Amino acid sequence: MMHVEIDETNGIAILSPDDKLSTTDFKAASATIDPYIERNGKLNGLIISVETFPGWESFRDLKSHFSFVKNHHQEVKNIAFVTNSVLGSIGEGIAKHFISAQIKTFKYNELDLAKSWILSSR
């Protein structure tokens, strides 16, 4: 399951998966994030906070992840990976070629630093 929280004041969505990612997770994230974007035009930032990357339940779920990114990346100004997983740095390097948002990786215990980075580049 992925927990989705929106800091309405600062326009930051925080996604925190606690198990392998699924299509249901991305539908739930969209159901929370999309109304905020409709009201405000964009998110200042999206934080993916997970100590170690859990992977996906299936290839179909990986495709759902790509669809989620494709449908939302233009409405997000900054993306922060907050993780101890090496995949954070790899994801940052790959995503920079496909996503218009600024992307930065932080250690898992640096959630507040990630929020500050997003707020400083509004």
Describe the fold and architecture.
With 122 residues, this protein is α/β, with parallel strands linked by helices. It is 43% helix and 25% strand. The chain has a 5-stranded mixed beta sheet, sandwiched between helices. α1 (23-40) runs parallel beside α2 (59-72). It is globular and about 35 Å long. The protein starts with a strand and ends with a helix.
As a percent range, the share of helical residues equals 40-55%
Strand runs, count: 5
Order of helices and strands: EEHEHEHEH
The largest sheet has its strands arranged as: 1-2-3-4-5
Determine the structural class based on helices, strands and strand pairing: alpha/beta
Kindly state the mean pLDDT as a whole number? Answer: 86
Distance between the termini: 30 Å
The gyration radius over C-alpha positions equals: 13 Å
What proportion strand? 25-35%
Uncertain residue ranges: none
- Principal-axes shape call: globular
Largest sheet: 5 strands, mixed
**Number of H/I helices:** 4
Please sum up the structure shown.
By secondary structure, this protein is of the alpha/beta class. It has 4 helices and 5 strands; from the N terminus they run ββαβαβαβα. The mean pLDDT is 86.
Keywords:
single chain, 122 residues, alpha/beta, 5 strands
